[in-house]
Amino acid sequence: MNRTASALAALAVTSLVLTSCGRDDAGGGGEAQSTEVAEGAATGTIEVWAMGTEGDELQEFSADFVKDNPDAEVKVTAIPWDAAHNKIANAIASGETPDVSLIGTTWMGEFAEAGGLMPTPEGLVDEADFFPGAWGSTEVGGTSYGVPWYVETRVLYYRKDMAEKAGWSKAPETWEELHQFATDMKEKGGADYGLSLQPGQTGSWQSVLPFAWSNGASITNEEGTEYTIDSPEMAEALDYYTSYFDEGLSPSRLLDPGELESGFADGTYAAFISGPWHTGLVEEAGLSTDEYAVAPLPGKDSGPGTSFVGGGDLAVFSDSDNTDAAWKYVQWLSEAETQQRFYDVVGDLPAVKAAWETGELAEDPQLQVFGTQLETTEAPPAVPTWEQVAATIDTLVEQASKGDAEPEDVVKEMQTKASSIGTGL
């Protein structure tokens, strides 16, 4: 699905440390919410930056907003994801920002702390309307600096036909069941590997942290001022995660592009964890919905477990020339009906829960699994240094997966390196 390229690119782009230019030295992270948006229709020009397919489609899609706000004009500039971070960073530093932009969820802390983003106005939207993990991606130091636009999360994919052969009529719901499931898929179901997990390298934190969150681990304290990675919960989760490599239940090398999908289709890999885009990819590889299924992630003692939530947020820049109209445009994009229609155009999963109540989102069994999982998700901490710490975690996860270091020692090293970097708040 198109949203995948957007979400993954947002997570992969290297983060830069920003310096505030001409703003309060305190930056973001503790400001009160901004004033309420004025009554009445939007007026004036609203300059918008958006990336990926969202950037390609948003101009035409915004025609309905302009129809309802005839004195307003929306100008969308499509920005490539691989150039977006630096472009936004430079715009904030120079004070030459648009009014509104799509912001990758892992960038929120950095840009808010730099003073580049306005706090979300009181009463603009209702936090309860959004999936909790998605809303959490907008909060920096207890203050929201935007509104979730679209989301993605990860679930368990498994070969249903192979599971039945291995004696499983339903998906595993606990860690113990998942381990037995992977073992049975290898020993009875005919798979070479019962569950494919990422053994480190870029983005592996997205695979490891759901196990940690499901075990009660936290990455920072509540205020976001200190990393709290070194905990028994985190060590236990990493030990469980690496057991799949130790026991040969998961391949210990990073798979080549396309290898997971083809291996899932030919039975080499019986299960894996990924997002909604993989439904299309595995079907292109030759599997039918009779042969595979998706299920919420198992929890430690009961399901569903806590999964990763990513996607994109909408933010208004502090240097916007038309903040009132900008927030009205963000508000419109956050309406359930608008989000459902945007799903029909682009395929982005809505961040607003009510958008899932009608149409394909309510009727498609696979999509409903993702909707169920989205109720139990967490976003990475919205702190300025997260990308740096995430890269450190990726490297250390690889050491643990290869058996070069004990999980408990790896977690301590994660804490040491993260503490030396600091959260930036």
From TrEMBL:
It comes from Nocardioides astragali. PANTHER family: MALTOSE-BINDING PERIPLASMIC PROTEIN (PTHR30061), MALTOSE_MALTODEXTRIN-BINDING PERIPLASMIC PROTEIN (PTHR30061:SF50). Coiled coil: none annotated. Belongs to the bacterial solute-binding protein 1 family. The lineage of its organism: Bacteria, Bacillati, Actinomycetota, Actinomycetes, Propionibacteriales. The keyword Transport applies. The keyword Transport applies. This is Sugar ABC transporter substrate-binding protein. Residues 401-415 have a biased composition (Basic and acidic residues). Keywords: Signal, Transport. SUPFAM superfamilies: Periplasmic binding protein-like II. Residues 401-425 are annotated as: Disordered.
